[in-house]
Amino acid sequence: MKKADIATFFDRLAAALPEPKGELEYVNSYTLLVAVVLSAQATDVGVNKATRALFRQVTTPEQMLELGEAGLKQHIKTIGLFNAKAKNVIALSQMLIAEHGGQVPRDREALEKLPGVGRKTANVVLNIAFGEPTIAVDTHIFRVGNRTGLAPGKTVLAVEQKLEKVVPADRKLHAHHWLILHGRYVCKARKPDCFACVVRDLCAFKGKTTLEGVPKKPAKKKVPVKKKAAKKPAPKRPAKAKKAAVRKS
Q1: Nearest-angstrom CA–CA distance, 81 and 154
Q2: DSSP string covering 40-65, please?
Q3: Is 123 exposed, middle or buried (0-12, 13-18, 19+ CB in 10 A)?
Q4: For the chain, how many structural domains are there in total?
Q5: Which end of the chain has fewer CB atoms within 10 angstroms, the N or the C?
Q6: In this structure, are 46 and 103 located in the same domain?
C-alpha cells in the first residue's frame, strides 16, 4: 500500500471512531495485565464475564495472593485453559511484589519476564496503561495487515515491525485499537463486510464481498468433447507357414 493511501486509511478509521478503546474491562494497570493474560485464546466478552466479580474483590497483587490459586480458579473457570492461567496469574503476582514493589513495570523486557506474558500482552499493557505507541498484533490485526496490503508478513512479528514502519506517527497511539476493532467487526475472517468498510477502495483484497455475499468466480464453460470414431480393425492377414529350424549335427 502506498504511503498516501496508508495516511488516508488511518484518517478514515479515525473519522469513524475518534476515541477507540479496548473491550477488556479493568480497574488499574494490574487488573489490565491480569485481564490480558486471561484473554489468551479466549474472547474479551468471556473474560469480562469472569473478571467483573473478581475485580470487585481483587485489584492488587497482594489481594490476589490472599485469594489464592483455588479461589482464583472459581472466578475464571469458564475461561479456556483456566488452570494454567490461574497458576500464571499467581506467579506473576508474586514476582511483581518481589521484584517491582507490587507495581506493573513500564518496561517491555521486565513485562515479558512475567509468567504468562509475551510480546503481545506486553504491547497491550504498554499501550493502554502507559500510553506507549506500541502495536500488539493478534489474529485480527495479522489478518487485516495481510488482507488489505497494509502490512503483509508471514509472522506476527513481521507484521508488527511493518506496521511500526508504515503507520503515521500521529496515528500510532490508537492504531492497535483501530485495527483490532476493524478486524473484529468489519474485516472478519470468514465473511468480511466489505460493503460496510470505510477503506474498501484502498484495500488490496481481491475477494471483496457485497450485500449479496462473497462474489463467486464465473463458472468455466464446458467445451463439448467430440467423440472419435472407432477405428475399424484391420483385416487379418493369413499366417505364413513357419520353416522348420535345421539343427546342426
Answers
A1: 27
A2: TTS-HHHHHHHHHHHHHH--SHHHHH
A3: buried
A4: 2
A5: C
A6: yes
Is the pTM higher than 0.90? The answer reads no
Q: In terms of domains, do 178 and 110 share one? A: no
Angle at 117 between CA 112 and CA 120, to 5 degrees: 90
In this structure, what CATH number is given to the domain that contains residue 175? 1.10.1670.10
Point out the residues of the chain with pLDDT beneath 50: 241-249
Q: Give the pLDDT of residue 246.
A: 38
Active site residues: 120, 138
Specify whether the CB–CB gap between 117 and 111 falls below 8 A: yes
Q: What is the pLDDT of residues 177-203, one digit of tens each?
A: 999 999 999 999 999 999 999 999 999
CA-CA distance, 112 to 125, in Å (whole number)? 11
Label residue 41 exposed, middle or buried (CB < 10 Å: 0-12, 13-18, 19+): exposed
Question: What does the pLDDT look like over 68-87, one tens digit per residue?
Answer: 999 999 999 999 999 999 99
Final residue before a domain boundary, out of 168, 196, 224? 196
